[in-house]
Amino acid sequence: MSNPVSQSSNTSSPQVIVCADEASASRKVADMIVAAVNAKPSVVLGLATGGTPVKTYANIVEDFRAGKVDFRNVTSFNLDEYIGLSGTHPQSFRHFMELQLFNHINIDPSKTFVPEGCGDDPAAHAAEFEKRIADAGGIDLQLLGIGHNGHIAFNEPGSSADSRTRVVGLTQSTIEKNARFFDSEDEVPKTAITMGIGTILEAKQIVLLATGTGKAEAIRLSLQASPSDDVPASWLAKHPQVTFVLDEAAASELA
Ligand SMILES: O=P(O)(O)OC[C@H]1O[C@](O)(CO)[C@@H](O)[C@@H]1O
């Protein structure tokens, strides 16, 4: 069971839920996703990759195996993918999603959309990806992580609130952080395809999960600085239904 230690007292957005630790924050987000599927079996989920959601996905798999949730009518869209990595590459986000979630639940693989990093025309694919989201009726619940520099998906600092799914360059700091998933920094792709901030803000509900002291500054700036391109996650303050689920470490710089 999730064990929030504190919660913002009003209902305005962003709502902030602080949990004791990473395990309870991950459980809380899993509960929110499972509740969304149970409330609307044909829900359209927006999904994230990275180290942060791994435990959340493990909790969801646990709930599926316990018969608490059914994904057969769910559609999912992932936020981003590295340019140059095919879906079978061990560090591709498609592979991550299969390993962490899709292979362990009864989601229809044809309803799981992850941007393709190896197509001939990534710009055309980006436009097509936007169309697919619209054709699915839009994203009901979008899960996000956050980068140390405040990026969401691969929207690096400088990304505007109206940016759409597109090809982007990664900052050196993101390349260095993500090198931990590769054999060496040289292997980290320098470009990616990502949903835009504007695309993300169109989701009906957004949940951002952040854990660890490494995210504390990005969380403070996202929640307490004026929204600006400098901290892409700060644009979430413009959304009417966004929840930050944090562990105490990620919340440690909040006033
Ligand atoms: O969860 P991590 O591994 O700290 O990554 C932070 C963010 O950077 C990304 O890896 C880049 O999109 C996101 O998937 C993630 O939300």
Automatic annotation (TrEMBL):
Signal peptide: none annotated. GO terms for biological process: carbohydrate metabolic process; glucosamine catabolic process; N-acetylglucosamine catabolic process; N-acetylneuraminate catabolic process. Its EC number is 3.5.99.6. The active site is at D80 (proton acceptor), N149 (for ring-opening step), H151 (proton acceptor), E156 (for ring-opening step). Keywords: Carbohydrate metabolism, Hydrolase. GO terms for molecular function: glucosamine-6-phosphate deaminase activity; identical protein binding. GO terms for cellular component: cytoplasm. It comes from the Bacteria. Belongs to the glucosamine/galactosamine-6-phosphate isomerase family. NagB subfamily. PANTHER family: GLUCOSAMINE-6-PHOSPHATE ISOMERASE (PTHR11280). This is Glucosamine-6-phosphate deaminase. The gene is nagB_1.
